[in-house]
Structure formats: structure tokens, C-alpha cells
Amino acid sequence: MADTRAESRGIAWAGAVNLLGGAAGSMIGLLLAAIVGRHLGTTGAGTYFLVVAVFMIASSVAELGADTGQVRFVSAAPAVDRLADLPHLIRLAVVPVAYTGVVIVAVALGGLTAWPSLAAGLPPALLVTAAALVVLSSLTAVLLAATRGMGDALIYPLLQNIGLPVLRLVAVIVAVGAGVEVSGVLVSWLAPVPVIFLLAAAAVVHLLRRDVGANRSGPAPKAQRRRLSGEFWAFSGARGFSAAVEILLEWSDVLLVGALASPAEAGVYAVVTRCARASEVVQSAARISVGPHISAALARKDPREAGEIYGLVSAAMTWLSWPFFLLLAIFGDSVLSLFGPGFETGANALAILGLAMALATAAGTVQTILLMGGRSSWQLADKSGALVLNVGLNIVLIPVWGITGAAVAWAVTLVVDTAIVVFQVQRLMGVRPSAGNQPLLLAAGLALAVVGTLGTAARLLFGSSLPVLGVTIVVLAAAYLAISWPLRHRLGLPALLAFR
Hints:
Structural class: mainly alpha
């Protein structure tokens, strides 16, 4: 489709940009976690991650689902020749999110004033400031989603995946060098949020001038804008609830480990989950790059094109990410030793999470298809059920097995939720991989045969240590790429690179 915006380089280019940006951000995040873990120890790191968990949950809730609404509606506007709707769509999202953020600040201030013990030993002023920065974090997410919807593949990874983590890393290194404790480290982690917000706002203004300024059609009539507002919030509202449930799924187990076990175990488990989720850069890059394309295809009533994207991206995600998951499962103790003494006790939990993540990744971009197809209410029901299942399993298993129980609970929840969404997308929506599952099965088999077999052999022969892990990665990467090259067409990789 011809488009006045400059995103015609294709899905593979956008995916590569976001993958590189996400990988950089993920590695910086792991380095940041290692610095915090070594400086604060397991107990201090536990307190740090508990505050970060609450911040992330509040920020996601305050977005109200408007970030996903921006991607879906902003990207669909040019597909139906309605570029003039873009300013209205952005205002629709920003104003309610800002008001919600003000409510969060008021609640935090009132709660800490009435019950000072809620601060748990941290300065109340720090927590109120964190609540205020939740507003900016939420608005930043919405603005960056608008840039994605307007077809810019660079702004999101540059600001969210590189800019914010780099600024946080520098700030935390300075704080650690000054010898500060938990409160000072948290201040340094929060400090870059206003900077990224201002840059995101400037980027949106620039893109609006580019797109709307060149558009000759006038603004939509008031009745049409009201209808658009209703459609936007009907979708985004349901998505907002499911996003809140999603972020609770991501962080509730850390909170529950802290409550049912100890802050030290929460610190270990938080690092374990950060390691397992480092591979989500592949999923994130796929979601960011294909979301606008899926939305446009479904807006044109073209499930065949959506299915073609789905199949190609699912195979590529599996080919890229399964080696990482397998190495985490095999050398988990060596990976966790990077974070300091005591963290390697989470090796079993890391292996469980890595294998569960591998299965979920093989499902591809099903969550994106569900959302871009307007089924945000379906996702809300899915995630709500998953949260109930996860909390119930955690309450039963953490007192018995500790962080291993939390990992089992999360793995079961992830696999069940993924299976339900695959059924909804393929059976109920009729979006299926156009090439069948052959590329996906080949990618999974290749990773198991090369990385799984040889990695396990290396561990059995030479043991588990950082030097062994390093040499194994180099050897396996060379072997994996060499074997993949003649199979590239059967894996669907050239077809993905050529897709426009």
C-alpha cells in the first residue's frame, strides 16, 4: 500500500531496528540489575525491585490501554484515508491519562499521610515523587505508541529501549559510586523519566506537523469525532483493564514472594524473572514492527495478509529466541552468578521460566493479532483468568517450594494463557499462518538439535562456569548460523525480509 509516511522499508527493517534497540535495552537492564544486586545484596535488591514493581504496575494502569489504542487507531487512519483524525486521536488518549495520573498522586499522598508505615522504611517524599513520575511515564508510553502508529520505527527504540535504560544506568552508577543505599538508587532510577517524556512529546509534535500538515482533508465533523471517541475508548478501556492485569501477572509473583517468603528471596526471584524476560526483546520487536501492519490488514478485511505476517514472524521469533532460552535452562547458575553471591540459588526457577517462555514464543504474535483485530475484551477475559490462576498457584506453591514454586506457577499460567489465545486467533478469528507450521517446526527443531544437544553435552563434559558458557556461546552461534544458512528459505527468513 502506498503511504505518504516513510515506513515502506518493510516489517523486517522495522523489526531489526526494534530488535537491536530492545536487545541493547535488555542488556543494559541486566547490567543495571547486576550492579544493584552486587551493591545492595539480595535483601536490598529485594526492596529495590518491590518499589520498581509497584511503579511499573501503577504506570501501566494509568495508561488506561490508550497506548495500544494509539497503535491501532492511528495506524488505521491512513489506511482509510483519515490522516486529519490524528490530532483528535492523540488528544483522546493524553487528557484522560493525565487526569488518571493526578488521581494516583493524590491517592499516594493521602495514603502515606494517613498511614506512614506504608513507606516501609523509605522516605515518604520519595514515594510521592515516584507517584508523580508515574504520570509522566504513562504519558510517555502513550506518546511513543502514537509515533509507532504514525509509522516511525526509530523513535520508540531510541527513546524507550536505549535512551531511558542508558540514562538510568549512568545515574545508578553515579549513585552507587557515591555509596548510597536503596533510597538513593531508586532516586537515580526515577530521574530520567521527565527527560524521556519531553523528547517523546517533541517527537509527536514533529510527526503531526509532517503528516497532518501535508494532508488536504479537513477535520472530521463533530458527530464523526464523537463516534471515533466512543470506538477508541470502547477498545482502549477494555485493553486498559487487560494491561493492568498483564502487569500484575508480570510483577505479582515478585510481590507474593516478598510477602510469603522474604525480601531476599524476592530479590533473587526478581533477577531470575529479569533474566528470563530478557528474551522478550524478540517478542517486543515483533509486536512493535507488525502491530501497525496487522491493524491495517485487518482494517482492510484481509486476514490472508495478516496470516502471512503471522506465520513468517512466528518462525523468525522461534529461530532467534529458542537458543537463548535453552542456554538459560542449561547454564542458569552461571548466568545468575553475574549478579552476586546468593543469586545462583534461583537456577532451577530460571530453567523453568526459560522453557515456558520458549513455548509461549513459538505461538508468535497472537496477542498482537487479538488486539489489532479489536478483541481487547477477549484479552481482558484471558488475562483476568490467568491472573486468578497465577495468584492461586503462587499462594499454594510459594510456601512449599519458595521461588521454584513461583516459577512453576508462572510457567503453568503462561502456557495455559498462550494456548487459549492461539485458539482464539486461529479458530475464532480465522487468522492462520499461510505457510502452515512447517517453518516454525523447523526453527524449533533446529534450535533443539544444535543448541539443546550441544549445550547439554558441553555442560556434562566441562561443567558450568562463565568461561565454559562463553566458549559454548561462540561455538554454538557459529554452528547454528552455518546450519541455518542453507535452510533459510524453508525457515521463511528471506520472505520476511522481502515483505512490504
